[in-house]
Amino acid sequence: MRIGIDIGGTKIIAGIISDAGAVTSTKRIPTGAARTYGAILEDIIRLIQELINESGLQKRAIDRIGIATAGQIDKESKKILFSPNLRWHNVDLRGDIEKAIEIQTCIENDVNAATYGEWKFGFKGVPKDVLGIFVGTGIGGGLIVDGKLYRGFSNVGGEVGHTILNPYGYRCNCGNKGCFEAYCGGWYIVKRVKKRIQEGYRGKIGDIINGDMANLHTGTIEEAYLLGDEFCGHVWQEVIEYLGAGIASLVNLLNPEIVLLGGGVIYSTKHLIDEMKVVLNKRAMTASLHGLQIEKAKLGEEAALLGAAYIEE
Ligand SMILES: [Zn+2]
Known about the structure:
Number of strands: 13
CATH class of the largest domain: Alpha Beta
Strand content: 15-25%
Bound molecules: zinc ion
Shape: globular
Helix content: 40-55%
Order of helices and strands: EEEHEEEEHEHEEEHHHHHEHHHEH
């Protein structure tokens, strides 16, 4: 048995996982960037201890703890160099947990972990080359190359969301301009529509959200586009075009067997994948499209737990 932990910007989920990839029990706690590293670390340690106690398992039955977290992990020290959603710099979360719990612990970027989890347990590790693209508030990427997770020379590769699709384009939260995620990340899409509504725009989207910005998300923006809303139509067509063009560029570069799509924007929309495919088929090179499969992620939030727990070092 192993334990997987997924540390997100708003919640932490931990689960016990059998060697066959069954998540037998999970626990979750809220978190946030307002809390200190020390306070969050204490929460995580307590969460793991409770999970083990409630499972009835002996501690020695747990072979390993795997942590999935946003941000870049140093290749040698395994410290988190920077975690954007919790604003951590250079923290040794892996070492601190291993010291406190006394079970071997490893750490992985969350999108790498989710891609690996989907590949190993969702696709049984069969396809050799998989490009994972998770379109949520931003865009994260994970690469399986020749049956192994590809991390790059210094462990920080696979940053699909910050490939630059337009050097003069929208500003990205990374400080650059025109990144893939500045066009297709949910946070950025919602921000563009929200700004226009706040300037007085109503359209179909105004009826759909009924004056409540809490109802404004990529699902309702797509719905407004489908109903002919003029501004949402403009925004959404740009999303489709850039998503297709971004994936076409990556498919030309990597020639994967499977493009695996996950994340909130993918799950909340109805036609985005099909409409993206039209652009992809138009823009990618014919040879790169041969045999290419576009698949939706299957495991939801368990993917990162599974991947973190079972990823090979
Ligand atoms: Zn960027």
